[in-house]
Write a structure and sequence with these properties.
Blueprint lengths: L13 H4 L7 H8 L1 H10 L5 H41 L9 H4 L6 H13 L7 H7 L4 H7 L6 H8 L15 H7 L1 H14 L10 E2 L7 E3 L5 H22 L1 H8 L2 H9 L2 H8 L9 E2 L1 H6 L1 H7 L3 E4 L4 E4 L3
Parallel strand pairs: 3-4
Antiparallel strand pairs: 1-2, 4-5
Helix pairs in contact: 3-4, 4-9, 4-12, 4-14, 4-15, 12-13
């Protein structure tokens, strides 16, 4: 007997439509390399190289979704630090000034070098502060935050992160150990961002030590699929909390974003199995609306998008 199905065919986001098919596993293996794919096969305990290719593509999708989230965090933290450091060191006269020049001697050598490199690359010392700040890499900001002068921390950091728990009592930022532990999330997200930028497997996690007590391990290195999913979800929560420390409205909007909804699915067993079985792209068959309704339950169990064509229109149904 046919199963009731929606009257309207759901149209999927473009990432479903344009997902990579990899029709030639041998060529894919040659280009990506056997050792890299074997890492997937061993870690996820896969039976075939075809499954490893599927999870390699899954890792790419997860990376893409995280990259969108991280881009907003990078911009938000950069602009918040720049604005508040400018206001503090200009004594409230400007939201954009060369504050790094005003504290040049107290900056780390690596931080000074990065500012100099921007000026050299952009041909001149007359660049405006916004131009310089926009050209600095994300790695500049964790170091600057870490080295905010202790005497000024209780004024600068609550302004940079107005919704951070410590900012409810600004003087808490004055204690160096408390401050460094509270800022550890910026360093962890920076490290994650670098792994993503270098196309490393996101599911491979090292142990994390307690910032206040390095002898204590708060997260052990990942050893299984379950470990990896838990750590990825932890990072996602950390990232969204970090954005919320700066702007809860932006945090709310990002949680509703299409790539965030996509990530929710990718970090489920059903999402992983879809890629493991190479069912992340639509079946080659195109169904009529009648066929779609009749096969609706089977389509859900098969866990693969299907195309449906009417006389004058077509759509893509993606089982959730």
């Amino acid at each position: 007997m046919p199963i009731d199905a929606p009257e309207r065919i759901l149209v999927a986001p473009l990432d479903h439509v344009n997902a990579m098919r990899t029709p030639s596993p041998d060529n894919f293996e040659r280009v990506v390399s056997l050792p890299r794919l074997n890492n997937y096969k061993d870690y996820f305990k896969l039976d075939t190289m075809d499954e490893a290719i599927g999870l390699y593509l899954w890792n790419g999708e997860v990376s893409s979704c995280f990259a969108s989230h991280l881009a907003y965090f990078e911009i938000a933290v950069r602009n918040s630090v720049h604005r508040e450091m400018s206001l503090f060191y200009s004594k409230g006269e400007s939201e954009s000034c060369h504050w790094y020049d005003l504290i040049w001697k107290s900056l780390k050598q690596a931080s000074r070098r990065k500012v100099d490199e921007v000026r050299e690359r952009r041909h001149g010392s007359n660049l405006g502060p916004d131009e310089i700040v926009a050209s600095l890499s994300f790695g500049f900001w964790p170091v600057v935050l870490h080295n905010v002068a202790a005497a000024h921390a209780s004024r600068i950091l609550p302004a940079v992160f107005p919704f951070h728990p410590l900012s409810a009592s600004a003087l808490l930022w004055s204690d160096v150990r408390t401050r460094r532990a509270a800022l550890e999330f910026v360093f962890e997200l920076h490290g994650f961002r670098n792994r993503l930028a270098h196309h490393e497997p996101l599911w491979k996690f090292r142990a994390i030590k307690d910032a206040k007590n390095p002898a204590r391990i708060i997260e052990f290195a990942s050893r299984s699929q379950a470990d990896s999913i838990r750590r990825l979800k932890r990072l996602l929560g950390m990232l969204e909390d970090a954005i919320g420390y700066i702007d809860p409205v932006l945090q709310h909007e990002l949680v509703q974003a299409s790539w965030r909804q996509r990530l929710d699915f990718l970090l489920t067993e059903r999402g992983i199995q879809r890629y493991r079985g190479r069912k992340h792209v639509p079946d080659t068959a195109v169904l009529t609306p009648a066929e779609f309704r009749y096969r609706f339950a089977l389509i859900g169990r098969n866990n693969q998008p299907v195309r449906v064509r009417r006389a004058r229109s077509s759509g893509l149904f993606v089982p959730d």
